[in-house]
Amino acid sequence: MWQTTEMKTVASLHLDRFLSFAPESAPFELEPLNVLIGPNGAGKSNVIEAFELLAAMPVDFAGAIRDGGGPREWLWKGAGQPAPATIDVVLEANTPTHRPLRQSNTLH
After folding, report:
1. Is the separation of the CB atoms in 18 and 74 below 8 Å?
2. Chain centroid to CA 54: how far?
3. Distance (Å, rounded) from C-alpha 25 to C-alpha 44?
4. What are the tens digits of pLDDT across the range 16-63?
5. What pTM, to 2 d.p., does this model score?
6. Going along the chain, which residue ranges are E strands?
7. What is the helix (H) or strand (E) element at residue 57, kind and residue range?
């Protein structure tokens, strides 16, 4: 007997003060298939890093942060005082309420 679990897709991602994403960076909407294109230093790899952290959440989020060099390594290093970084993700889901699921994580 096969068990199926419905895959949830990410509807939007908002990275604020996370790696190269400055404060008040705009969230971006995602489709089932996305292609990251941009010049060097645009943040393409940092989007992948955010997804890797989200994937580690149910298992070992703290371990993933430590493996990346500790909490301060994940924070935006621009002007101003260091502040918490936020990864905000909205998942589409076929729930009884037909509402998307939202998860937000803050790194200090």
Report:
1. yes
2. 6
3. 14
4. 998 989 998 999 899 888 999 999 988 999 999 999 888 887 788 778
5. 0.75
6. 9-16, 28-29, 85-92, 101-107
7. helix 44-67
